[in-house]
Amino acid sequence: MVQLEEVRRCNSALVENHPLVAVFVGGTSGIGEQTIRALAAAHSDKGKGLRLYMVGRNAEVAKNIISDCTRDCPDGIFRFVQVTDIALLKNVDKACAEIKKTEEDENSGTARVDLLVMSQALLNFAPRTETPEGLDIDMSLLYYSRMRFIVQLLPLLLASSLPAHIISIYAAGLEGKFILDDLSLRQPNHYNFLNCRSHAVHMKTLFMESLVSRHPGRLSFVHVFPSLVITDAFDKSQVPSWVKILWRLMVPFLRLFSVSPPESGERMLSLASPRYPARDTVEPSGVAGATATDTAIAMGSDGIRGGGAYALNWDGEPIPSKKMHATYDKIRGDQVAIKVWDHTMNAFETIEAGSVFTD
After folding, report:
1. Burial letters for 44-74: b for 16+ Cβ neighbours within 10 Å, e otherwise?
2. E-strand spans in 184-314?
3. Amino acid 252: pLDDT
4. pLDDT above 70 covers what percent of the chain?
5. What is the DSSP letter of 305?
């Protein structure tokens, strides 16, 4: 476990060493909100500068969060980018276009994104529900919309000198069944909550490994399982009322085994530390003097220390290599990563062209 004291040291170093430009998707509630608050508190009046874009639906909630963050971080610049339905890729594109325009118009010469944190999700046990673009709404929130944010913001991410850190908060390490001939889970007998989660996790791991290999030294990509964090997100979910009532009755007991929201926010922010470097930056004279055998550098999801793509548990430690090898070795040998990349980019191109994705 990465100790909380070390987490806070990393967060202080992050804001005190560099001015930061951060984008948070799903930042108006849950763990995303807590991570924004952690960043504002860490920056305070000691940081080198902060520009933060909060992408979400609820403008009133965002206003309150920004008010609190401005009080903690008076020199920070906080902007809300409103998106009514982030499961639609056309709305993702609009949000990214707004962020890019603001960065380029107002910050000539320094337009960039140093930190992208994504936590958008919908707790939903309903049957497959397609968006007008042809994607399942849950799969879009957990996978397609997140990868689209990365692709659309990639020029700004590559402009970061840190290098850029991308953090996707969901269910790293919780892989299950992976149906290679139905990546979109369109067959009714294939679609359920567990398969949806498993496909989102598998595809995200393979996509992020492909992405960092295409941009060595430029991007660090973390996929993290945050553990049980009790926030208001469950009350806003679309589960039946009786489930919500049962949940409220269980909360006092579950708190004994949960991570507090403030601690979770601090831990998610710390994943942008040099412990998780970009690919090919760990050399004998590399990150903070580390070498590829330095245990302070995390093991990548591909089994390479400092590999650039990381699947992590809530405490900042990598999912055990034995589990990752058992899950992915055959998949990698069968070139499934190429299939996932092509499938994803085909979805993006089809929807961007105004058609409905049917693969």
Report:
1. beebeebbbbbbbeeeebbeebbebbeebbe
2. 219-224, 309-312
3. 77
4. 93
5. B
The sign of the dihedral angle between the CA atoms of 201, 207, 211, 213 is positive
Contact 169, 119 (CB under 8 A): yes
Report the chain's mean pLDDT, rounded to a whole number.
Answer: 91
Report whether 37 contacts 261 (CB < 8 A). Answer: no
Sign of CA dihedral 121, 164, 147, 340: negative
* pLDDT score for 235: 64
Give the DSSP letter of residue 25.
Answer: E
Residue 294: how many CB atoms within 10 A of its CB?
15
Q: Which has the minimum average pLDDT: 119-123, 191-195, 212-216, 322-326?
A: 119-123
Rounded to whole angstroms, the Cα distance separating 252 from 255 reads: 5
Cα–Cα distance list, 311 to 3, 115, 174, 303 (Å): 18, 17, 10, 10
Contacts of 268 (CB under 8 A, 6+ apart): 31, 34, 35, 38, 117, 167, 169, 224, 226
* Calpha distance 20→133 (Å, rounded): 34
Tokens of 345: 């980019």
